[in-house]
């Protein structure tokens, strides 16, 4: 019986891919500033996701988040009672 | 009140040939920050021609001083901008802060040296670099600025792969 290999076994292939992702994340998370950011409480996965977008996509994504926050705030506080938080 | 329209403000100023650099939170987001900002900060060139272009560009957006009541007289015109330096404004497109100089970097020409050209919304826009952002945040020493340093420094490190 032939020995299963990643090229013939889909499970092993998927496992191999996950191993690559894990190795990559482990390498990223071990970098000094990234490590400090994680210890500080920053969700570095959000940064990694953002870096996959173009700068325009990042600002448009932010706009969607901002629009939602303002809409939610007005829902809670009523229009015209916006308080600056940033 | 609706949220600040970042795209509208940046493209509007660019199309009016205003010389400006995107700084602050919007610049950080362009570099990948996950922070939320409620305004657009720009550093503008303080030449007479640029101040005139800036005032003309913003006039249709009904600029007024943020945080003041309606009865405080204010017109964003060239004499006012020449006499002042930094302005925190509310416009019909949202909150916009104008800076004649940036802490830790200096005036427009110094900030420009720390800026990079990034394609935003189809235009080549000057945006303060991550190094410049870090330098200015460190220089202010304010709690709110120091809080974003770990994220900016992490972004700089993560960006090393792309360079």
Q: State the major sheet of chain A.
A: none
Structural class of chain B: alpha+beta
N- to C-terminal separation of chain A?
A: 65 Å
SSE string of chain A, helix = H, strand = E?
Answer: HHHH
> How helical, in percent, are the residues of chain B?
40-55%
Distance between the termini of chain B: 40 Å
The interface involving the most residues is between: A-B, 36 and 36 residues
What is the strand tally of chain B? 9
Give me the secondary-structure topology.
The complex is a heterodimer of chains A (86) and B (163).
Chain A: H1 10-29, H2 32-40, H3 44-51, H4 55-77
Chain B: H1 6-15, E1 20-23, H2 24-30, E2 39-44, H3 48-58, E3 64-65, H4 78-83, E4 87-91, E5 94-99, E6 101-102, E7 106-107, H5 108-113, E8 115-120, E9 123-128, H6 130-140, H7 143-146, H8 149-159
Helix pairs in contact in B: 6-8
Short description:
The complex is a heterodimer of chains A (86) and B (163). Chain A has 86 residues and is mostly helical.
Overview of the structural elements:
The complex is a heterodimer of chains A (86) and B (163). By secondary structure, chain A is mainly alpha-helical. Chain A is built from four helices and no strands. The longest helix of chain A has 23 residues, at 55-77. Chain A is elongated. The N and C termini of chain A lie far apart (65 Å). Chain B has 163 residues and is an alpha+beta fold. Chain B has helices spanning 6-15, 24-30, 48-58, 78-83, 108-113, 130-140, 143-146, 149-159, and strands at 20-23, 39-44, 64-65, 87-91, 94-99, 101-102, 106-107, 115-120, 123-128. In chain B, β4 (87-91) and β5 form a beta hairpin. In chain B, α6 (130-140) packs antiparallel against α8 (149-159). The longest helix of chain B is centred in the first third of the chain and has 11 residues, at 48-58. Chain B is globular. The termini of chain B are far apart.
């Amino acid at each position: 019986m032939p020995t299963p290999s990643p090229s013939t076994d889909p499970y092993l292939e998927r496992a191999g891919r996950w191993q690559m992702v894990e190795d990559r994340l482990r390498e990223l998370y071990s970098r000094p500033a990234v490590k400090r950011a994680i210890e500080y409480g920053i969700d570095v996965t959000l940064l990694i996701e953002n870096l996959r977008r173009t700068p325009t996509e990042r600002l448009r994504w932010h706009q969607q988040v901002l629009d939602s926050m303002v809409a939610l705030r007005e829902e809670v506080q009523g229009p015209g009672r916006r308080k600056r938080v940033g | 009140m609706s949220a600040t329209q970042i795209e509208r403000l940046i493209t509007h100023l660019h199309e009016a040939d205003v010389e400006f650099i995107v700084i602050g939170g919007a610049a950080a987001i362009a570099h990948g920050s996950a922070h939320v900002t409620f305004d657009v900060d720009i550093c503008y060139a303080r030449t007479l021609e640029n101040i005139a272009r800036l005032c003309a560009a913003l006039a249709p957006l009904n600029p007024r001083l943020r945080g003041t009541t309606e009865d405080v007289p204010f017109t964003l015109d060239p004499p006012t901008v020449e006499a002042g330096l930094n302005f925190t404004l509310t416009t019909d497109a949202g909150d916009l802060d104008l800076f004649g100089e940036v802490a830790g970097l200096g005036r427009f020409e110094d900030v420009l040296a720390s800026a990079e050209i990034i394609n935003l919304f189809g235009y080549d826009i000057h945006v303060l670099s991550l190094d410049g952002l870090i330098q200015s945040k460190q220089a202010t020493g304010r709690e709110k600025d120091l809080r974003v340093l770990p994220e900016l420094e992490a972004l700089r490190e993560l960006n090393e792969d792309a360079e």
